[in-house]
């Protein structure tokens, strides 16, 4: 009997070992789930820092990529770090097949070689997957010889072709020749284009499934000078936190008169962008006798088109994004999804600022995201300077009109966990003591308790969601915001509310504030009450000439503007 028990024990142990190895093998070879990994963003940020350090060592200078190649690593042993990296090359992160079918036993990494332009003996002027496209662009560049090289994955195939111009020291480099400055490895569908200035997007697949995308920073010498000046201007704006525009800079009307001095803010909220093309769900029709379920899919591209069209029609001076930009259940790489979601804004060269919603609650992850956002053109986000403030995205910018000697305060708060903290209200009081503004607007994601007013109240727009709010914010903060002189509170979160509610101060009935919803802007944002709810976005306009603050909305279906309303006007002297 004991012998049998021993054999059974050995068999059970053997089976458990087999199951463990099977589970380990499955975890290593199965497809990666759609879930963003903050460690990837951290490694990308560290890599950018390393490259910047290398750049500073290169005579503070014109950093360029003079060569790149692909190496193969066995990911079971390499732990995302290859051991066979040639000297003077840097390994980019992540691997090219990071989100591909990971039954592939090896990881393929892209290596780059950085040099200063003064020291380089060759420059790369383009990369393509098609040799003919490189040849058709220019058969010859005057004064320089060029060659087309292949970058091989293995002995049987090549993935890239790069055009290289060999430097000729007798002939100075032409200011108009593009030069490869940097490469970003992104992941997404065909709707992802890197819209940053001087970036070219190279899709390594034409498939609708998630695939590898390269973003190539190609700049000539003239463009580099322009970008450097633009970056310095943005840095000055962030440091001073003042957006100043002059009447003299405004275009003229046909009759020669100056156009009115206006500052326009576009609010976007609850965009819910994902790495794939859109969110799909099964729709059960109770009237369908055949019991056939239909699949309904949303479209992130539709959201991008809506934003782009609205920007073209409104030409905003600033875009404020009030949370839930990312759908974490449909995302795999923060860097890629941020570039995808900001495409129309980056393409139109518009200043923008972002505050978090419910999508991310980890403080360190939020810092990583803001750290990356702050590197993007025209982004006003910075890492928090005042660590005593609750949350991460708390900002205030002064908008000043030189011609009319008026100013506006645009304040952004982080309503993390559906909560505004005492430290943030104290921040508002400090701002109120420091600045005397004619107009004041405040933006955050989650509504205050007063967005559920009892009894009768004045309202403009649609007010569908009326369930109890789970806000933890002290109800007195509503009156504090009024006491600090704000004219309007603009929020998101509730997808099917787009109304503005006039709310009185509990302490002084003569004082009031407009509480305005943006509604859901993203096509992939869930609407439970009305599956066909029309997506919208909100606009605010400070008219310094007429002394008033206006608001209205745009809807996605017919792109029309509607619900124009007066938020505030400066009292006229008697």
UniProtKB/TrEMBL annotation:
Coiled coil: none annotated. InterPro entries: Calcineurin-like_PHP (IPR004843), Metallo-depent_PP-like (IPR029052). Residues 263-496 form the Calcineurin-like phosphoesterase domain. It comes from the Eukaryota. GO terms for cellular component: cytoplasm. SUPFAM superfamilies: Metallo-dependent phosphatases (SSF56300). GO terms for molecular function: phosphoprotein phosphatase activity. This is Calcineurin-like phosphoesterase domain-containing protein. It comes from Candida maltosa (strain Xu316).
